[in-house]
Amino acid sequence: MSSPLALVHLAAFGIYGFTIYITFYDLEIPMMNKRFEQFNPGQLMFLTVWGVIAQAVFFFLCVLNDFYGTNKIAPKNAPIFRRIKDYFHATYSFPLAMFVGITFWGLMAVDRELVLPKALDPYFPTWLNHLMHTMIMVTTVIEMFAAPRQYPSRRNGFIGLYILMLTYLVWMHVIYYKSNVWVYPVMEVLSLPLRIAFFVVLFAFSGFLYYAGEVFDHLVWGTIKRTSNMAPRKKKSK
After folding, report:
1. Which residues cross the membrane (predicted)?
2. Whole-angstrom Cα distance, residue 44 to residue 126?
3. Is 232 among the domain residues?
């Protein structure tokens, strides 16, 4: 169906599709190629890029749901696109967008050389930086207000989120062992115990963001009972 919400979702999908295109086909950073000359997985080495891809996938699911699903608060028989969209936003889109944005700008405030050295500025434009690290937070929060979702059980949500985070953690170590270079310079200044503590804190923070998203959603749309199988849920009677 054609609606303002569908147009918003189409626009967001277009923005992230464009960002992905620029990232993979137009963004060229010679010093990064030299730094990872032993093993260079390209832009997929960065969690930021994973986050942008997640947003593109999510808003594509939103478009499918707009046309073939429903945006009702608690549909009795939620269509498949609605169920997938809701799970994806709760488990990946919101926590990952907020995680990437908050950690990036937090480390930038402490010392930008830890995440985005000034030497990269001629190759990495400011507008692209904001699409990747600012816009992802803006659009995922707007989506919270624009459309309701049915949260999965907290167990299923945390399982999905931590599988993703563990996958990236393993991937980052694979890159290090093959290239002898950390993807993020902040890892180079941390000893092994501090690095482990850093990862533990980040994992805990990602879990907190999942919970914060659930609370935020319930504040906006009301407390809706969770189900373990993503089945339709009904509002609790007052």
Report:
1. 7-24, 44-67, 87-107, 127-146, 158-176, 196-216
2. 20
3. no
